[in-house]
């Protein structure tokens, strides 16, 4: 079983790994979001990254944040492919994809997640224009 000190060292290394990728290929917002995700995973009672290769965890964290923010869609900026992430960390795409799914499940992530969505995604959330009135959801424009 990993000690608290070992987990903290792994967390610091993960912060460095995701930060380096984001600084090189993405932007400051992705760097911030991925680092926040590392920290949140590190606060879990059962820290998921205490076992396994840190490169896989780093790639999966970027992948998970990327999935909810359409990072893999060329019409969005910044853009990166899953292959670029996996090649950078020398990991297998299937392994990273599975680990990212685990992360999304652990953190209960969906598109437009308030904590891990980019500013652009939050502003373009179609649910922003809806409000509940007497149990009914209606567009704000009708009020």
Quickly list its features.
single chain, 143 residues, mainly alpha, Cyclin A, domain 1, two-stranded antiparallel ribbon, 55% helix
Descriptive report:
The protein is mainly alpha-helical. The protein has one domain (4-142): Cyclin A, domain 1 (Orthogonal Bundle). It is built from six helices and two strands. It has helices at residues 4-25, 28-42, 54-68, 82-89, 93-106, 119-123, and strands at residues 130-133, 136-139. It has a two-stranded antiparallel ribbon. Strand 1 (130-133) and strand 2 form a beta hairpin. Helix 1 packs across helix 3 (54-68), helix 3 (54-68) runs antiparallel to helix 4 (82-89) and helix 3 (54-68) crosses helix 5 (93-106). It is globular. 27% of the residues are buried. The mean pLDDT is 90.
Give the overall shape.
globular
Number of helices: 6
Helical fraction equals: 55-70%
Series of secondary-structure elements, N-terminal to C-terminal? HHHHHHEE
Distance linking N and C termini: 57 Å
Number of domains: 1
Number of DSSP E strands: 2
Lateral strand order in the biggest sheet: 1-2
Average pLDDT for all residues:
90
User: What is the top-level CATH class?
Assistant: Mainly Alpha
- CATH architecture level-2 label: Orthogonal Bundle
Brief summary:
With 143 residues, this protein is mainly alpha-helical. It has helices at 4-25, 28-42, 54-68, 82-89, 93-106, 119-123; strands at residues 130-133, 136-139.
Helix-strand layout with pairing:
Blueprint (H helix, E strand, L loop, with lengths): L3 H22 L2 H15 L11 H15 L13 H8 L3 H14 L12 H5 L6 E4 L2 E4 L4
Helix pairs in contact: 1-2, 1-3, 2-3, 3-4, 3-5
